[in-house]
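Retry 2 of 3 after timeout on previous attempt. Resubmitting structure tokens to design endpoint.
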């Protein structure tokens, strides 16, 4: 056998076509660099959000790799077809009569040469691509990948080595095809079909069919061996080995037989190769689900029954609607991304319907699931009109006024509670968290990946406390912070609101579109509030606004100025009108956002969760202390943090136990994201878990992922997919 291998090495070195092939292989490096150059030019021509919509070049092999495979496949084929073409096959078989030994002797030569060539080409393509992309390679894209992937990125070095190591297998496939076909031209056509045409054709097919077929083709397998693609690494490796074995089996049959007996057997082996190629390899299984999902508009919908009282799991149940944006099938499914809606009482079903575009890229790897929670106003278990209204909150200046507010709140709550006292007492976030775990169990998932938005962070943290081992990842977006001491929380919130008021004032100073342009906005605001407290400003139907009413009505506009600062313009107009004795600028806004209420009501539907979760004052003394804190540190918005907890004064249901600390040693690192007005709360929560990261958005808004900020989505998707935590204080800026 040694002599046979030595002879094959001599033939390989003296075959001139091999030298040409090796030289032409360098074109693969040029192709990769050329595509990177075109991408870099296109990238530089874009601005803002469009920069994140590019497709990743990954490790840089995408364009050059098929050509490199074609070269090494041709090298394997030529090692046998040239012998058939020149007639030297007879001489070779005379020297080595054992035909299988003759074929076997070619394999180590081809494997050794193609392994070296493959590694050189693979690393050449990678370094050429990264050199052309330069700093652009580090841009995080919407699909969670970077434009390019350097060797320092997890899995890149392993992927390159595995791809280089796959070259000998492709060379052996070429050898097998060449032995079976016995024609240089015919084998080249077959290789071009398998390595170039079929992958291109698969890309033209509709999803997910095209992705599924493409994932099973030779060129896509090494990358899936290095990291999960649509196939698991084990399945991808097994399929690549099966291709090689099938091709060599065809070669073994072909070289052993002659004449007419050869044709039917070659047809059989060709059918075997085809069967290997089109039979799907085992992808990661989707867990068995107890839920039945049915199409409903653009979503899949289902429902689940959960106990009203989780302390009595065999007792009365309620039905919660569920919705899913299903995995699109382009890449291996990781699991379920569960979106916890805010509010409290917001509809996660509506979130998925309205915000489907924000989830477009992450659906390549996840089913995205949410629900209409037990505290959802639209659930219909309690009267909707009752839940979406409530008493108008006043600021008590005495214990007598405190008691009067308590009576008013209690009466409103009791009216809603009367319809279903049992459910009304179990609308807390801990019960919500247990509902989520029932969904996880029913879907057959070992863990959920979580996205918690706004107040959704409270049930999200409750879940993390109850079931830490079932949390794969936790992304918090502008979340409420239930773990801070109330004094600490108010101090932080007042500072944020004052900073936002300063931005509004600065905008007015700089923009003539502001109705208060040229005036000291802080002085105007405080003057209006003081005057309204002395003599409330008339709105309509006998309703008049106090300074507190004005502040409460102004907060949504102040926090979220909207496109082109439209809501700030509206707020400035309302302030100027109120100065002139007309508060309808505030009441009109409030009416549009409520069921026609002339003042901002204390929403019973929100309070029935807030109050159970403990967002309330212990007593009048605590209220006075925290009110005084606001008056000291927030000269313009000194009572902005009073409204929600004042809505729980006199509540008929006791608060649940205070939030316990997180079991941080049992949880994965979190990621928190927030804007100017909610970053501090979210970061404080996330950083309680060691190793966590944060995204600070230098701009306005609330709920960055849902509202489609490309930068935040890119970093969040990267975390969801690879569990890669962005550095602390990663900055995102508005991208248009």
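Retry 2 succeeded. Sequence:
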């Amino acid at each position: 056998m040694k002599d046979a291998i030595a002879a094959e090495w001599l033939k390989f070195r003296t075959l001139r076509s091999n030298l040409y092939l090796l030289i032409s292989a360098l074109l693969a490096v040029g192709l990769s660099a050329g595509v990177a150059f075109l991408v870099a030019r296109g990238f530089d021509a874009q601005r803002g959000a469009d920069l994140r919509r590019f497709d990743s070049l990954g490790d840089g092999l995408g364009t050059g790799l098929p050509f490199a495979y074609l070269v090494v496949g041709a090298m394997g084929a030529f090692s046998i077809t040239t012998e058939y073409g020149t007639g030297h096959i007879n001489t070779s078989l005379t020297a080595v009569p054992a035909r299988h030994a003759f074929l076997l002797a070619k394999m180590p030569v081809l494997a050794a040469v193609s392994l070296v060539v493959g590694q050189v080409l693979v690393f050449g393509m990678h370094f050429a691509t990264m050199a052309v992309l330069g700093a652009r390679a580090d841009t995080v894209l919407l699909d969670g990948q970077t434009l390019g992937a350097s060797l320092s990125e997890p899995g890149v070095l392993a992927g390159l080595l595995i791809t280089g190591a796959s070259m000998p297998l492709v060379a052996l496939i070429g050898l097998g095809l060449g032995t079976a076909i016995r024609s240089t031209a015919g084998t080249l056509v077959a290789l071009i079909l398998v390595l170039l045409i079929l992958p291109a054709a698969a890309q033209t097919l509709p999803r997910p069919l095209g992705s599924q077929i493409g994932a099973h083709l030779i060129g896509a397998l090494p990358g899936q061996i290095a990291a999960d693609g649509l196939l698991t690494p084990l399945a991808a490796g097994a399929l690549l080995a099966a291709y090689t074995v099938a091709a060599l089996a065809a070669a073994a049959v072909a070289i052993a037989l002659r004449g007419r007996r050869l044709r039917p057997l070659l047809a059989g082996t060709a059918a075997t190769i085809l069967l290997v190629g089109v039979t799907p390899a085992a992808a990661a299984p989707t867990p068995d689900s107890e839920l039945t999902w049915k199409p409903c508009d653009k979503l899949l919908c289902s429902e689940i029954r959960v106990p009203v009282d989780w302390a009595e799991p065999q007792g009365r149940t309620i039905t919660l609607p569920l919705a899913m944006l299903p995995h699109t099938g382009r890449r291996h499914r990781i699991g379920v991304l569960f979106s916890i809606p805010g509010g409290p009482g917001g509809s996660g079903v509506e979130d998925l319907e309205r915000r489907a575009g924000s989830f477009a890229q992450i659906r390549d790897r996840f089913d995205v699931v949410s629900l209409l929670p037990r505290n959802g106003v639209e659930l219909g278990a309690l009267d909707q009109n009752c839940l979406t209204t409530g008493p108008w909150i006043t600021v008590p200046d005495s214990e007598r006024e405190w008691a009067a507010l308590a009576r008013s709140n209690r009466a409103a709550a009791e009216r809603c509670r009367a319809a279903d006292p049992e459910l009304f007492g179990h609308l807390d976030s801990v019960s919500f968290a247990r509902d989520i775990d029932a969904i996880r169990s029913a879907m057959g998932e070992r863990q959920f990946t979580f996205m918690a938005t706004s107040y959704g962070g409270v049930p999200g943290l409750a879940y993390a406390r109850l079931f830490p081992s079932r949390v794969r990842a936790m992304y918090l977006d502008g979340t409420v912070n239930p773990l801070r001491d109330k004094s600490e929380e108010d101090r932080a919130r007042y500072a944020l609101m004052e900073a936002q008021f300063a931005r509004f004032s600065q905008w007015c100073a700089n923009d003539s579109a502001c109705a208060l342009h040229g005036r000291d906005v802080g002085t105007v605001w405080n003057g209006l509030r003081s005057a309204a407290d002395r003599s409330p400003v008339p709105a309509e139907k006998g309703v008049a606004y106090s300074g507190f009413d004005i502040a409460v009505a102004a907060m949504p506009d102040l926090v979220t100025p909207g496109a082109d600062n439209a809501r700030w313009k509206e707020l400035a107009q309302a302030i100027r009108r109120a100065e002139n004795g007309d508060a309808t600028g505030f009441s009109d806004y409030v009416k549009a956002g409520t069921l026609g209420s002339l003042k901002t009501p204390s929403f019973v539907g929100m309070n029935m969760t807030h109050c159970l979760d403990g967002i309330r004052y212990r007593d009048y003394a605590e209220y006075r202390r925290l009110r005084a804190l606001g008056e000291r540190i927030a000269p313009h918005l000194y009572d902005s943090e009073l409204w929600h907890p004042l809505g729980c004064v006199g509540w008929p249901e006791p608060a649940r136990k205070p939030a316990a600390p997180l079991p941080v040693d049992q949880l994965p690192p979190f990621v928190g994201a927030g804007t100017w007005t909610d970053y501090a709360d979210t970061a404080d929560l996330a950083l309680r878990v060691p190793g966590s990261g944060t995204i600070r958005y230098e701009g306005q808004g609330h709920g960055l992922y849902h509202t489609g900020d490309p930068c935040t989505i890119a970093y969040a998707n990267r975390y969801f997919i690879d569990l890669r935590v962005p550095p602390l204080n990663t900055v995102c800026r508005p991208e248009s």
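Attempt log closed. Residues 486-646 form one domain.
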